[in-house]
Amino acid sequence: MASSSFSCGFAIIVGPPNAGKSTLLNELLDFKLSIVTPKPQTTRKKITGIYHNEVCQIIFLDTPGIMKPQQKLHESMLGVIRDTLKDADVVLALLPYSGKKDFVDREFVEELFNHWLKPTGKPIIAVLNKCDLVSQERQQQAEEFVRNTWNPAAVLSVSALKNTNLQQLVGTIQPFLPLHDALYPEDTLSTAPERFFVSEIIREKIFLLYGREVPYSTEVVVDEFKEQYDNDPTRKDLIRCSVIVERDTQKQIMIGQKGAALKKLGQTARKDIEEMLGRPVFLELFIKVRPDWRKKNNLLKSYGY
Ligand SMILES: Nc1nc2c(ncn2[C@@H]2O[C@H](COP(=O)(O)OP(=O)(O)OP(=O)(O)O)[C@@H](O)[C@H]2O)c(=O)[nH]1
Ligand SMILES: [Mg+2]
What we know:
- By secondary structure, the protein is of the alpha/beta class.
- It has nine helices and nine strands.
- Helix 6 (about 195-210) runs antiparallel to helix 8.
- The structure holds guanosine-5'-triphosphate (GTP) and magnesium ion.
């Protein structure tokens, strides 16, 4: 029961890979919770981020990009979206502007609305992202086109990157949330444990530092997370992680000449992990080869997919 006119509910962010879903979540929370890279298929699991203001609490659910599955891993990623949709009170269909002739990728949006979203019966807000890339005039034309073609509950243009129209977006979401007290205390940013974000930060650095198929063939598992700093500030927290790759050649690339690449990965990841945790850590990375892990149900399961 709501004690006031406060509203609280779940808003899922869905869209194609690279649309800016994770950037939007981070910008709304004013905290880098979800990893962002210029490469598609960065996000693989559901990321929960909690937004608070005076009149509502919005539990945002960032999801992997929707694409045609080519492996078991992709099927699991799509399963995450399907499951997360069930929890949502409102759906944000994040559609990126492109420099191309069409306003949006029509074929994709057709599939997204008709196959994924409309059968759920949930209200859909079409959020046209990356509006910094196009003129105002084009934005108006695109909004009208999307409104007339797919008839979502609301349409607006935003730039997650430049923080344009994000307060309008919050205002648009709020009426679709149930009247309900906050589900989480005001200082809660996410429900996932710290170790999850540790593995995500390492994955982000792998996406940024390595080329071609290497990031896509990689998974990160936190094997040990020993918190010692809080009790004894002379001892850093100890974090041991396995970096899983599919082949020996990838292991060699990960390690690099005289271990230089792995050293750089460790250093850049550690810096961000320390920033997130607010305390110093000692980070150890072990590269392990698990042939074709993306196709193997038992391995996928053990990595949380
Ligand atoms: N110009 C511009 N770029 C943006 C905007 N939002 C995100 N980007 C860029 O788009 C790229 C992808 O951003 P992400 O947030 O990782 O996209 P995503 O939808 O989460 O991608 P996946 O997790 O791979 O599905 C990054 O290089 C972002 O900086 C925006 O509003 N304008
Ligand atoms: Mg993402």
